[in-house]
Amino acid sequence: MYIIKPSFEILDNIDGENILKKIEKIGRVCYKSEEKITESSAKIFIKKIIESGHESVIEHEKITVRVICDRGVSHEIVRHRIASYSQESTRYCNYSSDKFDNQLTFIKPCFWEESSNEYKKWKEQMLGIEKSYNELISCGATPQEARSILPNSLKTEIVITMNLREWRHFFKLRTSKRAHPQMREIAIPMLEGFKKIIPIIFDDIAF
User: Fold this and answer.
1) pLDDT tens-digit readout, 124-145
2) What is the pLDDT of residues 21-41, one digit of tens each?
3) Which of 30, 53, 164, 195 is the most interior residue, by most CB within 10 Å?
4) Cβ 74 vs Cβ 156: under 8 Å
5) Catalytic: which of 147, 165, 174, 184?
């Protein structure tokens, strides 16, 4: 059994400054103010359209991210409608095979210390599930049949593509203090990463 922490990887090679310039060029069509474009006008223009709520303009750009999280978190992620998803399939992945070292991988709960009774009980249950899963496969069950006993803590990989407006919506919901702790565990570092590579677009989102 493997126990890992969640992580993410931005799959696009992003030039934040060029993205802003492209969005400005697109956005100024609405006002027919293309003549106001300068080398430094993009940041000011985009900040104003975000402040005014004219966020449809930033839908023209997208970002793709690979997220490693638990199944419970992935169920919340896919509730965001305006996005494309490709996710590791428990129907076709046989975790009892050599490809997966004959082991299940689980995401470590961030809300329990390893020394706590809660964590020890959780780990005990995960070991039992792994044993039962492998036994089901050995008995002739297919992966899609054996997956019926897999828990929310199972590690999954999901590739997410959203336009910038939907990413803003995602981060506003998923980094808030009302969000699930394991969702915040992945969403907050992701937002911080987005802020570093794309100026202005995400700067106003606090957590």
Assistant:
1) 999 999 999 999 999 999 999 9
2) 999 999 999 999 999 999 999
3) 164
4) yes
5) 174
